[in-house]
Amino acid sequence: MRLRLLIAALIFATILALLEWLALADFLYWRYVWFDTVMHFVGGLSLGTFIVALLPRFRPVFYIVAVAVLVVGWEVFEAVIGTPRAQNFFFDTSVDLLMDAIGATVAYVLARNTLWRSV
How far is residue 119's CA from residue 116's CA, in Å, rounded to a whole number? Predict the structure, then answer.
């Protein structure tokens, strides 16, 4: 089961990488305002799937802390490297964090209803 989850996480991460490549090549972030939101959802989903695959058993607190540290770390990384920001920086960052959390929550709910069902 863990191998399947790792493969699923790898597929999500590959989709994310391909979308990022297309977005940068075709200026999708500038053409479509909502594209960044989709990217953060897929990023949260792939991150959540990786964390579920690496957890040896059901540990919701560890899962939440790991996701929170990584998504906040990503936002800090974006700020440090100088990623262009929207006019409303705090709203944009809040939406990014929310979409990361929703994607990770989807991964958590799926794991809770399949892998961690008996716990």
Answer: 5
Q: Where are the domains of the chain?
A: 2-113
C-alpha 55/C-alpha 13 separation (Å) is 18
Q: For residue range 22-73, what is the model confidence (pLDDT) as tens digits?
A: 999 999 988 998 999 999 999 999 999 999 999 888 889 999 999 999 999 9
| Phi, psi angle pair for 88, to nearest 5° | -95, 80
For residue 61, give the 3-state DSSP assignment.
Answer: helix
The 10 Å Cβ neighbour count of residue 65 is 11
- Cα 19 to the center of its chain, rounded Å: 13
